[in-house]
Write a structure and sequence with these properties.
Elements: H1 7-12, H2 15-26, H3 30-44, E1 49-55, H4 61-68, E2 91-94, E3 101-105, H5 116-122, E4 130-135, H6 141-152, E5 156-161, H7 164-171, H8 179-196, E6 204-206, H9 217-227, H10 230-239, H11 245-256, H12 259-270, H13 277-296, H14 301-311, H15 315-319, H16 332-344, H17 348-357, H18 368-396
Parallel strand pairs: 1-3, 1-4, 4-5, 5-6
Antiparallel strand pairs: 2-3
Helix pairs in contact: 2-3, 3-12, 5-6, 9-10, 11-18, 12-13, 12-18, 13-16, 13-18, 16-18
């Protein structure tokens, strides 16, 4: 049996959270401890993320808004696209799975009388966590005016050169074509152009709204992740479409952070002397976490049906790459069966080691087995579902795993 380690999980709970839970335990106030963790789990899903997407008319703003939310330009709920400016005022588009995430299609810039400070006032600058500034060709003075004003007002922005797929297709006609060389040339040209109009050390991300998983998406999300507050990073990673192996792995790490909290909640409930309560709560907690896993990785039925439409594969073909015991659906009986099987694998020695290692639950020994069973099962389930997502992604790209 593999060695179980608790140190990483233990460190996931912040010092403030630990103190609150310790206080509740020391006063035998288990209902308060249970309530505190439940509220923490619920609040995570209410964290807002507001992304402002701006640029000149026809630069691909609306297509980016749609792609960022995992939608095509003609799907229900997508932003209107077209060769001329279709956005006259800030328009919020909700993420289809995470309603607290809003991607804003902002009015176009680049008019002769454009003034960055007036524009930011018009679009209500304060509401956005960061801005995406898009150009489909060269960046111009209107882009740098806006970037400088955003910086002056204390927020982040990212230069995105859009329609890279079109640029690549045009260059393919040349005998000397090389994709990496072409991408480097485009990036250098954009950055040199920005330097000439007053931007120091510019960074430009090359993106295709039609093929979002290619080119610089991973570099862009890494930069956004580094510069966002921690609670916003979680929302960003879950909201991004699962279209690259890097995003797949980061989603897994984000979802892992909740396992210790869910398992602690299970442990505390296990100490409440109500027959059947612990088992019922464990099944409900696990079912909710597994639903979140499937949704985040795009393995829920609506996401899989959409993947089939875009990849040309049947639902049976797609599901043939999924090996998790939950890929045929979640049921209370299947969850309880796996809980029982997991509990049998955990020895009394491991429980004793656990309760001595984690001081906040050492006095709640009856919850030790519940914690270990739930945390072990969730870790295994998350690993399996993440592997399924990776296999489905690779199959949809028709790339050898």
């Amino acid at each position: 049996m593999a060695t179980l380690t608790f140190e990483d999980d233990y460190n996931i709970i912040t010092p403030g959270e630990l103190e609150d839970i310790k206080e509740s335990i020391s006063t035998q106030d288990l209902p308060t401890a249970i309530k505190a963790i439940k509220e923490l789990l619920e609040k995570q899903d209410l964290v807002e993320l507001n992304v402002g997407v701006t640029g000149e008319s026809g630069s691909g703003k609306s297509t980016f808004v749609n792609a960022f939310r995992g939608l095509g330009d003609e799907e229900e709920g997508s932003a209107q696209t077209g060769p001329v400016e279709t956005t006259m005022k800030p328009e919020a588009y909700l993420h289809p799975k995470y309603k607290s995430v809003k991607v804003w299609d902002l009015p176009g810039i680049g008019t002769p009388n454009f003034k960055a400070d007036e524009y930011l006032k018009l679009v209500e600058f304060e509401r956005y966590d960061f801005f995406i500034i898009i150009a489909s060709d060269r960046f111009r003075e209107c882009h740098t005016q806006l970037a400088k004003e955003i910086t002056r007002m204390g927020k982040k922005f990212y230069f995105v050169r859009s329609k890279i797929d079109s640029s690549i297709d045009a260059e393919k006609r040349k005998k000397s074509f090389g994709q990496e060389r072409t991408l480097d040339t485009i990036r250098e040209d954009c950055e040199n152009g920005l330097r000439k109009i007053g931007v120091e050390d510019p960074v430009v991300f090359l993106i295709s709204g039609w093929e979002l998983g290619k080119y610089d998406l991973n570099l862009l999300q890494e930069r956004m992740e580094q510069e966002l507050p921690q609670h916003k990073r979680r929302v960003l990673m879950l909201a991004l479409p699962n279209i690259s192996l890097e995003i797949n792995e980061k989603k897994k790490k984000v979802l892992q952070e909740n396992i210790v909290r869910v398992a602690l909640l299970s442990a505390f409930v296990a100490t409440v002397p109500v027959p059947g309560l612990s088992i019922a709560v464990d099944a409900a907690l696990i079912a909710e976490e597994l639903r979140k896993y499937n949704s985040a990785f795009g393995l829920d039925d609506p996401s899989l049906r959409k993947l089939c439409r875009t990849s040309g594969k049947t639902i049976e073909e797609v599901k043939s790459f999924m090996k998790s015991p939950f890929h045929r659906g979640l049921s209370t009986s299947s969850i309880l069966t796996l809980l029982g099987a997991t509990a049998l694998l955990i020895s009394e020695d491991v429980v004793e080691m656990f309760v001595s290692f984690i001081p906040i639950i050492g006095s709640v020994v009856s919850g030790g087995m519940s914690f270990l069973t739930v945390s072990t099962m969730l870790k295994k389930a998350l690993n399996d579902i993440a592997d399924d997502a990776r296999n489905v992604l690779m199959a949809s790209l028709e790339t050898e795993v």
